[in-house]
Amino acid sequence: MKGVPGVGRLDPAAGEAHKRHMVERFTGSFTQQEPIPEEGIAAALEVLRSGRLHRYNLAPGESGEVALLEQEFAAMVGAKYCVAVASGGYALATALRALGVRPGERVLTNAFTLAPVPGAIASLGAVPAFVGVTEALTIDLDDLAEKAGQARVLLLSHMRGHVCDMDRLMAICDAAGLAVVEDCAHTMGAAWRGVPSGRHGRVGCYSTQTYKHLNSGEGGLLVTDDTELAARAVILSGSYMLHDRHLAAPDREVFERVKYDTPNVSGRMDNLRAAILRPQLRRLDEQVARWNARYRVIESGLRGCPGLQVIERPPEEAFVGSSFQFLLPGWPAEAVRAVVEACAARGVELKWFGAPEPHGFTSRYDSWRYVAAPAMPRTDRVLAGLLDMRVPLTFSLADCALIARIIRDEVVAAHRGL
Fold it and tell me: In this structure, are residues 279 and 43 in contact, taking their beta carbons and an 8 Å threshold?
């Protein structure tokens, strides 16, 4: 950390201790996922041998992998309807289209999220209007209450798996007439007060991209209890007049009402991806428990570290610890950058939401220059010290303890020099 003002000036004893710890280095991969279950591989081979990858290309009497996945996912979250689509971002845009969002219309959304969320809004020609973030990494409900009258739709991102007080949020939105679309890309398997994530608002949208809780490379799911909205989503996804081949969709007469004024914006899921996903869905509870065990090891290793703030999880939230975040509140940018670089040198990959330029998958509200965003100083203070990392299930508990020790070492070393 040479050349970084205020960082790395250790007394000799601390320096020697730091050198000893430098022996420890993590050599695992933060992007390596577990293999697809053998049952999923066998089901995928069956689809490949049949040649019927398109969801509507079915043999007589055959339901098809996609229709079965939709039926099973709807049952898991307690929804009436489910539509499987090409990606989580496509699911978000489909939900907005089904709600009738028009070009030029303002749609509220989190300032702290990833690019596909405002991207879904912008893809319709609509305008993202950002709501702030708290130190709990959830949407700022006071800011939402102030802005609730500015739009008729809130695209709520449960960013990095942090679920806000959904009872208060829904009270604010119901009072303002705001329809809520939940982005559950990071909260499949999570809940608030026992209600599954995605089941508070009008629509819940999920991702099955490789780094999410089910892995099909790309893919998405949309759930709702709204009959007309579900029918529109099916047609939007590219059903043509084949909607009778769905198992988790409304009755035919609903489609008759909406089929002539709902465009086809094709983005269906195929049978190959659904075949891979169905066995994973059956294992989701087990996987959530494994993620959370790893999360708690990292949390325990970092709790009480000088200068570092862990994110406290409220008791009402049943979360999925597939990633881990912490804050270095009030730290100068040079010091945060030094921690990121020092951890990287020891094999630990941290993403920094306070970086001035987008990097990899990580960007922030003022990076998206297709929308004019007013300054958000409270949000900026949170993002300035926010660090984030993936926790794949290929990590052992011992790996997680090692990662926590490395982060703690580097934070302590940098904090002493502040």
Answer: yes
